[in-house]
Design goal:
four-stranded mixed β-sheet
Length: about 350
């Protein structure tokens, strides 16, 4: 065979190969799922009785996707207790209360608040499908929480399946270690044992002086006591004030207090039996959102009680006491401010 014939044959083969290659379909791009994608936090310790979103600080990155193609899909798998027994309580769904419209703090009636909330069915602990965030829900019937193991028990272990069209991976042995319910904050309750460790204190006091010594009254002189009626008949919140002997102090002595702006309530404040009572909706605050009734973070209601008095016939002193708190259970609640270390002087002198 001549060289010309050989060259012609090679050209025919190359052309045939080119035709074949032109018929091959290049596969579409598939999603990338990094083998290093992982949660930055593997142990979760929610307080039972509070709806809690993880991460609680929205600026925190909870899941590092490591350049994986988004969206990812997350699913909780294989919930079991620390002894590797199936935790069936987390397979069940319960009615929970959720917001269907945004709460803004300007709602004038209880009905207006309730129109913005609805009941949905959720599992106690869920992962959000595409964000990977975890939610610990509070059922409307909190007795269901009695079946949940709390610390000091080792709690639960679960796995999370993460996937996209490029594949899936299993993140194993995540831990859920619930803390016992604390129905209010600030709480002096030990989160593991439930033992009470003294009293809560007010946030700040300024311009209050002891009736006998004329010395300043400090935050540590005032104990704050929370009390819930065992058989509630509604949803109310009342405030009481007590002197060192636990005798009642008339709330109206705190004459500079803006009672109608003190807490988000419905209807007028009611003064009765040396206390002031508000008709409210729970929890307080109703949502984690700054309003005129909360601190700047929106996670605590903010109170300010005050009065003015003339001291030594010379100057007017503004006496103020502030307190920030949250209550997570509905019912008839009372907060008592006990001036256990000193009695405030309300009179001009």
């Amino acid at each position: 065979m001549s060289n010309a014939q050989k060259l012609y044959g090679w050209l025919l083969l190359a052309g045939a190969a080119g035709v074949l290659n032109s018929c091959i379909k290049v596969p579409a791009d598939v999603d990338f799922l990094s083998s290093q994608a992982a949660y930055t936090k593997t142990v979760y310790e929610p307080v039972l009785g509070r709806t809690t979103l993880f991460p609680e600080d929205q600026a925190t990155v909870l899941f590092n996707a490591d350049n994986s193609t988004l969206p990812l899909t997350f699913r909780i798998m294989n919930f079991r207790d620390a002894r590797e027994q199936a935790a069936t309580i987390f397979d069940k769904t319960f009615p929970v209360q959720v917001w269907k419209e945004a709460y803004n703090g300007d709602e004038k009636t209880r009905e207006e608040v309730e129109r913005k909330r609805t009941i949905e069915q959720h599992k106690l602990f869920e992962v959000r499908e595409h964000s990977g965030q975890f939610v610990m829900w509070t059922p409307t019937t909190p007795e269901y929480l009695n079946a949940v193991k709390m610390q000091p028990d080792d709690g639960y272990v679960f796995d999370v399946e993460v996937s996209n069209s490029g594949g899936s991976k299993m993140i194993r042995n995540m831990h859920l270690k619930p803390l016992r319910p604390r129905p209010y904050e600030p709480s002096s309750m030990d989160p593991v044992t439930g033992n009470l460790l003294g009293y809560s204190s007010v946030r700040s006091i300024d311009g209050m002086y002891d009736l006998s010594s004329a010395l300043p009254i400090y935050s540590s002189d005032v104990a704050v006591v929370f009390y819930k009626e065992p058989k509630p008949t509604g949803n109310t919140l009342s405030f009481e004030f007590r002197d060192t002997a636990y005798r009642a102090i008339d709330p109206k002595l705190f004459s500079a207090t803006k009672w109608e702006e003190l807490v988000h309530h419905f209807g007028p404040a009611k003064f009765e039996n040396n206390r002031v009572v508000f008709d409210v909706a729970y929890p307080i605050p109703l949502a984690k959102r700054p309003t005129r009734y909360t601190n700047i973070f929106g996670d605590r209601a903010r109170l300010e009680f005050g009065y003015d008095r003339i001291m030594y016939g010379m100057s007017r002193v503004k006496a103020r006491m502030t307190f920030e708190f949250a209550i997570y259970e509905p019912g008839d609640w009372k907060i008592v401010f006990w001036f256990k270390g000193a009695n405030p002087d309300f009179k001009d002198n």
